[in-house]
Amino acid sequence: MARLNIALGQRSYDIVVEANALSRIAEHIAPWTRRGRSLWISDSLVAAHHWPKIEAQLASAGIEAHLHVVPAGEASKSWAELARLVDWLLAMGVERSDTIFALGGGMIGDLTGFAASIVKRGCNFVQLPTTLLAQVDSSVGGKTAINTAAGKNLVGSFHQPKFVLIDPQVLATLPPREMRAGYSEVVKYGLIDDARFFDWCEANGVAVLAQQPDALERAITTSVAAKARIVGEDERETKDRRALLNLGHTFGHALEADTGFGERLLHGEAVGVGMVLALLYSARRGLCDARDAERVAAHLSACAMPVTLADAGVTADGAALVDHMRHDKKMSGGTLPFLLLRGIGQTFVAHDVDLDDVAQFLDEQHRIAAQAPVS
Ligand code: GLY
Q1: Among candidate residues 160, 275, 274, 169, the one with its CA nearest the CA of residue 228
Q2: Residue of 6, 126, 143 best suited for mutating to test ligand 1, as the one with most atoms within 8 Å of CB
């Protein structure tokens, strides 16, 4: 069991990582319930796995539990589901000092967090993440959002949860591909500023993916501690500090856009390929050794994750991929901040990247893949 804290003054909160925490749910959430009742948001798949046990425990503890179920899938991060959720909360008579419980992956956390930030001009919410990606990344940090026709996460708010409860045991029901996709965000923390943690990942990644309890708990705790530290230093991404968390995301976002933001390439898979591309591009600019890129690609490959454009199923040329980047919400004054590396554990924000040069680099990556011997 680990208890971490994210230091944000009055918005500080604890993050507890505890195997089987959901079997002590009433005890964990009791401080956040009022009037003997609790309001829960989950998705159809997660609710099917976990809700009956949670509801029974809350009933034994005398806590009334009401559940709103959202259809599973990224498509639910929408105006329509937001409206349904807000209407439900209002119909339940939610008050500003009530706490809303978000039980699910990134979609549920983002949608619930955004609803909590606007209902009655802001209610409390608690995150109970059920995917590895949500446990190590999206449940912590306070960014909430929905998607619109213009793009992903374009409407949202900064609204920190009051508490995050992470139970690694719930990952037992997660499909292995989702587990691997979440693992790329674990590796990311090693690449950002903790080379020793990347060494640890190389030695223990397979055990993490096999959900060996000690390895999994250490991966989650180290990742969350890193995220809490970085967010604590730059909550609203106004310095170049929090932007480090976007490593692999600019390339990754373009790959996701090209493959339709869906099952063809999961977000975490796109981030993994994006991190390898960031390293290869950094090496091409003479910033780091090409062997660093090879080392990271070898580790992700050993974990059965995609590492090249071809692995990601991306055929679009450099110009088309860069065009997706030009619509990135981080675009400012005609330039896009890029996360580059001087080596493993030495990520920095570059403000001088020429997108035409990135397009050429991506075309080179396609050519290199076309010339590679078929194994
Ligand atoms: N909620 C995700 C983040 O703040 O990074």
Answers
A1: 160
A2: 143
| Region for 193 from its dihedrals, namely left if φ exceeds 0, alpha if ψ lies in -120 to 50, beta otherwise | alpha
Domain ranges of the chain: 2-173, 176-371
Q: Which CATH class is domain 2-173?
A: alpha beta
E-assigned strands of the chain?
2-6, 13-17, 37-43, 64-70, 99-104, 124-129, 143-148, 151-158, 163-166, 338-341, 347-350
Q: pLDDT by residue (tens digit) across 150-198?
A: 888 999 999 999 999 999 999 999 999 999 999 999 999 999 999 999 9
Beta strand 338-341 with 347-350 is antiparallel
What pTM, to 2 d.p., does this model score? 0.96
Question: What length is written for the chain?
Answer: 375
pLDDT digits (tens, 9 = 90+) for 217-260: 999 999 999 999 999 999 999 999 999 999 999 999 999 999 99
CB of 306 shorter than 6 A to ligand 1? no
- pLDDT tens digits along 86-139: 999 999 999 999 999 999 999 999 999 999 999 999 999 999 999 999 999 999
CA–centroid distance, residue 283 to ligand 1 (Å)? 29
- Residue 38 sits at φ, ψ, to 5 deg, of -145, 145
* Structure-block tokens of residue 228: 């809490």
43 in Cβ contact with 72 (< 8 Å): yes
CATH topology of domain 176-371: Dehydroquinate synthase-like, alpha domain (1.20.1090)
Classify residue 339 by its DSSP letter. E
Q: What number of other Cβ atoms are within 10 A of residue 119's Cβ?
A: 20
How high is the mean pLDDT of the chain? 96
Q: Decide: 105 in ligand 1 pocket, CB within 6 A.
A: no
Q: Are 299 and 205 in contact (CB under 8 A)?
A: yes
Q: Which tokens belong to 59? A: 């009933």
Residues β-bridged to residue 335: 332
Catalytic residue numbers, as ranges: 121, 143, 185, 227, 237, 242, 246, 249, 253, 267
Q: How confident is the model at residue 374 (pLDDT cuts 50, 70, 90)?
A: low
